[in-house]
Amino acid sequence: MARNRFNSGSKQEAELPKAKLNKETLNKISALLKYLKPYKGKFIIGFVFLLLSSLTGLLFPGLIKVMLEVAQGNPAEYGLPNSVKLIGIIAFSILFVQSFVSFFRIKLFVEVTEKALADLRRDTYFKMITLPMNFFSNRRVGELNSRLSADLSQIQDTITTSFAEIIRQTILLIGGISFLIYTSVQLTLFNLSILPIIIGCGVFFGKKLRLISRSAQDQLAESNTIVEETLQGINNVKAFVNESYEAGRYDKSLRQVVKIALRGATYRGSFASFIIFCLFGAILGVMWYGAYLVQQGSFDISSLLAYMLYSLFVGAAMGTFPDLYANIQKAVGASERVLEILEEKTEDISIDPEKNKTKHFIKGSLSFKGVVFAYPSRKEITVLKGISFDVEAGQKVAFVGSSGAGKSTIAGLILKFYDIQKGEITFDGINANDLALTDIRNQIAIVPQDVILFGGTILENIAYGKLNATKEEIIKAAEQANAHNFIMSFPEGYDTVVGERGVKLSGGQRQRIAIARALLKDPAILILDEATSSLDSESERLVQEALETLMKGRTSIIIAHRLSTIREADKIIVLDKGKIAEEGKHSELIQIDEGIYKHLSNLQFEIQST
Ligand SMILES: Nc1ncnc2c1ncn2[C@@H]1O[C@H](COP(=O)(O)OP(=O)(O)OP(=O)(O)O)[C@@H](O)[C@H]1O
């Protein structure tokens, strides 16, 4: 009953759904057995130890029985010596062997599962990050994360603990019942007649308790969400002076938790008193009936004691089965979800970096020919409706248009994040589908709108653009990106830790790190997704300067939000609702009466001059 903790908040356990156990599901998950294969030898030894420790456990009641018989002056059975002292020594020796074997069994099982699970985790993770973008748009990050943590932990727990327990308890159950029958058929029949009542009540209470425990955990999870939301948006809470409102919201939710937990307590209390009554009642009943049989002369005291010990084994084994079964069901469910990921089709990226090296170098010319595209997650909405444009190698081409026009979508398609439905995208005249995915992505760098830095040092973050870069190369890239000075202003320089647990960099600083990263990658094609939030003028100048250095000599695709930065572009493409509305140089587009570009340009000019 230890699992029914009402306020434990162990949401993870409660959330894992159970799967039906049948031949089909078991067959399916047997695919995961290959992860145990490399450790087969150790697993088998562990398994033999497990059998040994369970079987030796069954010997004790029998040994105790013979020991008592010898003590009473009767001859020893089963070839044991006629000496209490010697039988005691044998019992202790067996106990020693059992403890010794149990130690190694646990050690071996943990080693095998830890290693197998690490392999499985590694494969699942690699599989996950090489899945196409579409997979991620349909799922939440939290959900994917829980596959790696909760689901795989459940599988691990089950293999190390539940699997071993099932084997152990089954041996104890079958062995125990056989010994019970062997010791006294009459008593066993008596015992079995009261068993169904206890089991029936146990199942009823167990179900009720589980339901209540689940709803208490759900409620607790809900109140935890309030805490999470409040802490995440703490500046909003403070700015609106809504502290007391939030505290009230949390308090209300907590009251609900307590209410449900109290309801559970009633069931728990009645269950406990029922179990105490039944358990001791059963022991008392057996003793009573056993004593009666002893009195009649058809049974002796030592056999009654052995009988009691075996029935405790059987009772304990029966009690553990529902939990073990539920655990196995959860593990099967978890395995199915993990397998789902392992069976997904991934992008053509290898885990071996050598195989990902560029095989075909491109100069940087790029064309879209009648490209039609809808996101796989929203097939009904065509985002790009027949887009055609050409970019020559080394040109600077800017895309402008209102929000949602499809600018970022074009950037994503250049990187081949998605497959297009119609038309063709070519690099140096070669269809993108005829180039290796790594050839395309290796030769394109993107400086995104919102630069996310990984937890690690600044040095590592810049090196993300070229993992084998030397420190000199990194510093040179940072200098060209106007980042060196601000990096050196930190006491730890390039070793300053950034990201969630480190120093927070300003938007402009993060962009310059991203520019340094891109410089290090030295791509043929560059995609700049201009930041929407404007930087202060000094920062803007530094970023702009760095961008100019970066763009020199490469094809640059600029997703522009501020038109002032793209006046010099070789071509400006104006997108409107997934189509190209205007195309030309700034000086040409500004001439078009009632043109979108002219309108946008005027708007921005007005905003700037107010
Ligand atoms: N992953 C996605 N799944 C489904 N639809 C998407 C996805 N990303 C974008 N869209 C939709 O595609 C359309 C074009 O979006 P896109 O991001 O390309 O526009 P944008 O011109 O870059 O806008 P902004 O200037 O605001 O960044 C929008 O209607 C958007 O809702």
Report what the structure shows.
The protein has 610 residues and is an alpha/beta fold. It folds into three domains: 12-183 and 321-347, ABC transporter type 1, transmembrane domain (ABC transporter transmembrane region fold); 185-298; 362-443 and 555-610, P-loop containing nucleotide triphosphate hydrolases (Rossmann fold). It contains 20 helices and twelve strands. It has helices at 11-15, 23-29, 40-57, 59-71, 84-129, 133-137, 141-183, 185-232, 234-239, 243-296, 301-343, 407-414, 437-442, 458-463, 471-480, 484-488, 507-521, 537-551, 586-589, 596-609, and strands at 366-373, 384-391, 396-400, 422-427, 430-431, 444-447, 456-457, 497-498, 525-529, 555-559, 571-576, 579-584. A hairpin with a 2-residue loop joins strand 4 and strand 5. Helix 4 (59-71) packs antiparallel against helix 5 and helix 8 packs antiparallel against helix 10 (243-296). The chain starts with 10 loop residues before the first helix and ends with a helix. Mean pLDDT is 85; it is low at 1-14. Adenosine-5'-triphosphate is lined by residues 137, 375, 377-378, 383, 401, 403-409. It is a multi-pass membrane protein.
